[in-house]
Design goal:
Elements (H helix, E strand, L loop, with lengths): L5 H8 L9 E8 L10 E11 L2 E3 L5 E11 L3 E11 L6 E9 L6 E7 L2 E3 L2 E3 L1 H15 L11 E10 L4 E11 L7 E6 L2 H5 L4 E11 L4 E5 L6 E6 L2 E11 L5 E7 L5 E10 L2 E9 L12 E8 L6 H16 L6 E7 L3 E3 L5 E2 L2 H12 L9 H10 L7 E8 L10 H11 L5 E7 L5 H10 L3 E5 L6 H9 L6 E8 L2 E7 L12 E10 L4 E9 L2 E9 L8 H23 L4 H13 L12 H12 L11 E4 L2 E6 L2 E4 L7 E6 L3 H9 L4 H4 L5 E5 L2 E6 L8 H5 L4
Helix pairs in contact: 4-5, 6-7, 7-8, 10-11, 10-12
Pfam families: VWA_3
Protein name: VWA domain-containing protein
Organism: Desulfomonile tiedjei
């Protein structure tokens, strides 16, 4: 931290309300828009405190809670943002509250209240706000606020926060949407204050409610694992909550709109001449289609080996009990135990009568855990329960996926189960614990068009259990295939798309090469209630959209999962290992070390690579992604991932006049330079190198030319 004198403090905050024994603080909130985004709140960003002319080290105001509520309708978005701060010091803090905004999407009907008292903010246009940002940056010696360059701001000055007291700031406003006919809506909330907070945020809550006049087909996020609640076809609530966690990522959520039948939405990104990546969002039918119900046979296969810890044993029984409660009157079931030897509750499938269901619960409560895991024979015994009849067949496999008895080769086990599953039973696997072999269980379920559910931490919520069992029903849409039609070479992941039995969308990521025209056309084939459906959807790779960088990253994540499977099968020294290292380096991903059986980190990473839509979950700690650029930490410097020694380099000193002139001429550079006082940035094959010192400083005239 750089201590600044009272003259600078007076310039920043003005004379009124200032005292020599007050600690000066900057409270920052922000709103920016991609499609129509805003900010989720602010921070107290404090300047040094002086007492009797001497600097005093004090703790920043603590962000106790942050709550953002957004209501999205056809023509506008309504925002209500609440934050509560605590001054844990013995002295009063004085500060300024800022609400930056994107000048392309100015807020309307803005109101700011502080502890329920209305405030009249001062409005600063971008050219008025930028000099204030420069003053703050010089005063605190930290470039983080330069991320706001190019934005306007609403300012409330001279805020006082008494010792050991809290202050709640609430902001309300509307953003008018520029179009009301789009097929996708993006809501973005840059979490400025939460990211800049000292330490974890005690309570973070984000609620986005879509209230549209057209059906909402799918809601998803590339930044956070959101929970969804569908109130009606036209209304969906997306929520995210965390407690006592540091915040590194801004929030964004997407909604696909329109239609009620089985359909698809396609987004794509060009990565080379004629090549690129795409994402297909498969939307199941919204209306509950009438079809003659087909009875089902369900075998619950539960791992009772000694490797299952007590907490997971309780979760296993809870999961099976929930499944038993969902059986219909015409359904049949049985329970298979997987240990050193395989056991059966009954010799064969039994009807789901109240008596049999009660007996099943007693059987579960009487199980003793211990010994090894003969996973192969457990699955084969489950398959033997089924007969050739007009019934649906499901196996609910609950295990950590680590065989210790019998067939121990993962690929050999998968191949043997594939051959033995002659009646086409679907395997729905619940992977128990962070150390579960998620790769083995994923492959077993994928080849049978089932699904995998990873149980870790405190266990699943009721909503997650409902989503898992949603697929153990008669499918509405099955035999789905997705393939680009107008490219010479293409791939799609997953290669086998699970059948759809409920309202959960599916995502297919792929790449293409040698595109024949200006647009990419993706063909979709499926059977909807037994009838064949074939249609195509097109995408313009050159169209600008904020979702595109995420398509490339998630596609790379799916490829990482595939190569992790290959590495384990073919060996650590195989070509798959080299490809894994290259992909991890290119995209800044974490990479676990494989072994005979997956380590705790390996299984967890595989699961994230295979299922997550959130790239930040698997980013290395030494990288930062700003827009479409990847920066790597090298010592105390952040270096652009595209940097090469052959590039022409210009050097500028941090906080010099030339440094600020760069941002004044090109405000978008602020988001990159905000990384720190030492940054190497590449723009148009030319390099600007920011150094923390006065040496090698160029004039502003020599600096601007690389970025014209």
């Amino acid at each position: 931290m750089i201590f600044v004198g009272s003259q600078l403090l007076d310039r920043l905050f003005g004379q009124a309300g200032s005292g020599r024994n007050l600690c000066k603080v900057l409270a920052l909130a922000a709103l920016t828009l991609a499609t129509t985004p805003c900010s989720a709140g602010g921070i107290f960003y404090f300047l040094p405190c002086f007492q009797d002319g001497h600097p005093v080290a004090l703790e920043r105001a603590t962000l106790l809670s942050s709550r953002s509520r957004v209501v999205v309708s056809d023509n506008e978005m309504e925002y209500v943002l609440d934050q509560t701060f605590l001054n844990n010091n013995d002295q009063t803090l004085e500060g300024v509250f800022l609400l930056p905004y994107d000048p392309n999407y100015p807020p309307e009907n803005l109101s700011i209240t502080i502890n329920r008292a209305a405030e009249a903010p001062e409005h600063l246009l971008p050219e008025q706000f930028l000099p204030l940002l420069f003053e703050f940056t010089r005063g605190i010696g930290d470039p983080c606020l330069l991320e706001l360059a190019g934005k306007g701001a609403f300012v409330v000055r001279h805020l006082l926060l008494a010792p050991k007291k809290e202050k709640t700031i609430q902001v309300r406003f509307f953003i008018r949407k520029k179009t009301a006919s789009e097929d996708f809506i993006q809501v973005s909330l840059p979490l400025w204050g939460e990211r800049f907070s000292v330490g974890p945020v005690a309570g973070l809550e984000i609620l986005v409610r879509f209230k549209m006049s057209v059906p909402i087909r799918a809601v998803f996020s590339f930044t956070h694992e959101v929970s969804l609640f569908r109130e009606a076809p036209h209304r969906v609530m997306a929520s995210f909550r965390s407690q006592h966690k540091a915040v590194r990522q801004d929030f964004s959520v997407f909604a696909a709109l329109r239609g009620t039948d089985f359909d698809a939405r396609v987004l794509c990104q060009r990565t080379s001449e004629g090549g690129g990546v795409f994402m297909t969002v498969l939307c199941p039918p919204l209306a509950r289609l009438r079809q003659q119900p087909i009875p089902k046979d369900v075998v619950f296969a539960v791992d009772i080996s000694g490797s299952i810890p007590p907490a997971m044993r309780e979760l296993s029984q809870r999961l099976i009990t929930s499944g038993l409660q969902r059986l219909g009157e015409q359904d049949r079931f049985n329970i298979v135990t997987i240990g050193t030897k395989t056991g059966l509750m009954q010799k064969g499938l039994v009807p789901s009568t109240p008596e049999n269901l009660t007996e099943a619960v007693r059987y579960l409560n009487s199980l003793s855990y211990g010994g090894g895991t003969d996973l192969f024979n457990g699955i084969m015994t489950s398959l033997d329960q089924f007969s050739l009849s007009r019934r649906q067949r499901f196996i609910v496999l609950i295990t950590d996926g680590k065989p210790t008895v019998g067939n121990l080769d993962p690929q050999g086990l998968i191949d043997a189960v594939r051959q033995g599953n002659r009646l086409g039973a679907k395997i729905f696997a619940a992977a128990l614990g962070d150390g579960a072999d998620t790769a083995l269980l994923w492959q077993l379920s994928e080849m049978s068009r089932g699904a995998t559910f990873h149980i870790h931490g405190r266990g699943p919520s009721e909503g997650e259990i409902n989503k898992f069992y949603e697929g153990i029903n008669q499918p509405l849409v099955r035999n789905i295939s997705v393939r680009p039609e107008d490219a010479a070479q293409a791939d799609a992941i997953p290669s086998v798309v699970p059948d759809m039995s409920g309202e959960t969308p599916a995502f297919v990521f792929g790449s293409y090469d040698q595109l024949k025209g200006a647009t990419l056309t993706v063909g979709v084939k499926a059977q909807v209630m037994g009838r064949s459906h074939t249609f195509s959807r097109s995408c313009d790779p050159s169209a600008s959209t904020h979702v595109k960088p995420n398509i490339l990253l998630v596609h790379a994540m799916r490829k990482m999962a595939k190569f992790m499977e290959d590495e384990r099968q073919k060996g650590f020294e195989s070509g798959a290992s080299a490809t894994l290292r290259a992909l991890a380096d290119e995209y800044g991903f974490k990479r676990a070390v494989s072994g005979r059986y997956p380590a705790r980190e390996w299984g967890r990473l595989y699961w994230l690579y295979q299922t997550s839509l959130t790239p930040q979950q698997i980013e290395s700690a030494d990288v930062r992604r700003v827009g479409e650029k990847l920066f790597r930490r090298e010592g105390e410097e952040w270096v652009d991932g595209s940097f090469q020694l052959i590039f022409e380099t210009t050097t500028v000193s941090f906080l010099s006049e030339a440094y600020f002139e760069l941002i004044r001429k090109s405000p978008l550079l602020g988001q990159y330079l905000a990384l720190g006082p030492r940054v190497t940035l590449v723009m148009d094959s030319k390099v600007i190198k920011v150094v923390d010192g006065a040496e090698n400083t160029q004039t502003s005239e020599g600096l601007i030319s690389p970025f014209k």
